[in-house]
């Protein structure tokens, strides 16, 4: 008897819960947003350039959390720190997916490229490897390699001062490729360096709206050639470019292990623990490090260029940085991480380089893994969820005069760094947060400290000795991140003879 009462009570409770579930789902609206047209929804409202500025304008009208629709797919834009905290961070795993991108499926990226992989076990296997080798404690082992790369960088810049900007890409690639593959960009085959640059030409195709198949995935069921020769080529070349990023440097290490020439590297270490012929485990390793290679170079490069641009434009910032560096480091040795606590102004420059014109202003979209019910609205399973980092980091209420590059805003009255967790939004949020953020921090902080200790970043001069104006230009299209378009600047040694003497010791 007791059992049947219990059973009846359970059935009644479940029925009530189900009723509650469905009635809540149907009674709660989506977050507010601009009016939609039939079928295409807001397709025509979303600008191709500077979309994050439009989203923050809409936020003023509709609220921090807005919804849009494109061909029936819901997009949710979270425009403030509070919105991200209350909606996502309170229940991160529900937001841990990545939206389906038809191009990525067609070009075979969806099962190996973390920026489009669903939150599956396969994703977790790859993410774990990255996290393991790129967490704060692990990266300390790469300091010696970083010093070598900074010394090579300075030698190159002394020879070609006007190339300092492009050279930051070589420095970022040199550091990653040595740590990950034991590969030396100065002496090794340039083919392996080039494959990453080639791949970057296709990565913009993941952006919402970049291709019609991404908005209307049903078109992807057609053979690529039916969507035009140009599209079929993009699929084929994109597939090959990503395969080479994953496989070519990895196979180069394997061949080196076999021939006894492989230098110490993360790939070599990871392979050492594997049983011979474990093809699946090998694939996980080559994918994980292919992601490091493809995601780590241009991001560091873009942000360092933000800082160089401002150094060339605002000599007064550089003067302050150099006063600090001269006091703490001097000119007889290279700066190192033990100096960091005593170099708050350098830290402030780095924070401002991440905040001012943030490199990835809309992050990488997340996807809801299930329906999410909030007080006033619900977000359906499968919705694309975007954090508007661009709006958060340029919010005038938090960062007065946000368009101005001012390191001082990150310092207290007594010159100490003011902790600002919002800067971390540059690296996303929740379970998919950038696993390379500590490595980026290492790569960039020591670069800035080093270049500013030994060089003045100035305007470049033309062949007649006239200064070339520094142009601040962004295209706002997000195709290769929101990095500055190429500008002219030079790095002039502050004391060439002394620097050359110092570099001879390395
Ligand atoms: C300025 C430097 C960098 C910025 C601004 C940046 C930013 C981001 C952002 C916004 C995301 C998406 C996070 C999210 O979904 O919420 C991301 C993901 C990722 N980043 Fe970075 N990143 C940088 C450097 C790096 C570096 C140096 C590496 C590698 C060493 C790296 C590897 C990755 C990977 C693999 C993902 C995908 C993670 C996943 O979806 O599971 N990033 N990054």
From TrEMBL:
This is Cytochrome P450. It comes from Vararia minispora EC-137. The lineage of its organism: Eukaryota, Fungi, Dikarya, Basidiomycota, Agaricomycotina.
């Amino acid at each position: 008897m007791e059992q049947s009462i219990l059973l009846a009570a359970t059935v009644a409770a479940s029925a009530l819960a189900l009723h509650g579930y469905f009635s809540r789902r149907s009674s709660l609206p989506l977050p507010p947003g601009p009016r939609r047209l039939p079928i295409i929804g807001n397709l025509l409202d979303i600008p191709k350039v500077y979309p994050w500025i439009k989203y923050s304008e809409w936020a003023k009208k509709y609220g921090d959390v807005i919804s849009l629709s494109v061909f029936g797919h819901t997009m949710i834009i979270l425009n403030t720190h509070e919105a991200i905290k209350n909606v996502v961070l309170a229940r991160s795993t529900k937001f841990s997916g990545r939206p389906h991108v038809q191009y990525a499926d067609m070009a075979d990226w969806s099962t190996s490229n973390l920026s489009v992989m669903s939150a599956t076990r396969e994703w977790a296997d790859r993410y774990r490897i990255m996290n393991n080798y790129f967490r704060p404690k692990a990266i300390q082992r790469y300091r010696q390699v970083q010093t070598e790369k900074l010394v090579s960088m300075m030698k190159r810049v002394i020879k070609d001062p006007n190339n300092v900007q492009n050279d930051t890409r070589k420095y970022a690639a040199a550091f990653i490729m040595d740590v990950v593959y034991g590969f030396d960009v100065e002496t090794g085959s340039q083919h392996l360096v080039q494959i990453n640059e080639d791949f970057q030409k296709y990565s913009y195709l993941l952006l919402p709206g970049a291709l019609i198949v991404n908005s209307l995935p049903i078109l992807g069921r057609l053979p690529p050639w039916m969507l035009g020769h140009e599209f079929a080529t993009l699929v084929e070349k994109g597939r090959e470019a990503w395969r080479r990023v994953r496989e070519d440097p990895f196979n180069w290490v394997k061949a080196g292990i076999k021939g006894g020439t492989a230098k110490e590297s993360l790939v070599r270490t990871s392979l050492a623990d594997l049983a011979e012929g474990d093809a699946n485990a090998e694939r996980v390793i080559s994918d994980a490090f292919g992601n490091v290679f493809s995601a780590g170079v241009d991001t560091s490069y873009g942000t360092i260029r933000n800082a160089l641009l401002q150094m060339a434009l605002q000599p007064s910032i550089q003067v302050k940085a150099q006063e600090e560096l001269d006091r703490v480091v001097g000119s007889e040795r290279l700066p190192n991480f033990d100096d960091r606590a005593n170099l708050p102004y350098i830290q402030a420059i780095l924070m401002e380089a991440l905040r001012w014109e943030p490199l990835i202003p809309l992050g990488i979209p997340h996807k809801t893994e299930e329906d999410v019910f909030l007080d006033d609205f619900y977000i359906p399973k499968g919705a694309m969820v975007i954090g508007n980092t661009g709006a958060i980091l340029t919010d005038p209420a938090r960062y007065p005069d946000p368009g101005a590059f001012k390191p001082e805003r990150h310092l207290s009255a007594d010159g100490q760094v003011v902790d600002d967790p919002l800067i971390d939004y540059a690296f996303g949020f929740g379970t998919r947060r950038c696993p390379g953020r500590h490595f980026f921090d290492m790569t960039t902080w020591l670069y800035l400290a080093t270049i500013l200790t030994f060089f003045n970043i100035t305007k470049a001069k033309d062949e007649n000795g006239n200064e070339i104006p520094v142009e601040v230009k962004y295209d706002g299209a997000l195709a290769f991140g929101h990095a500055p378009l190429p500008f002219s600047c030079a790095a002039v040694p502050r004391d060439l003879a002394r620097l050359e003497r110092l570099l001879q010791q390395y």
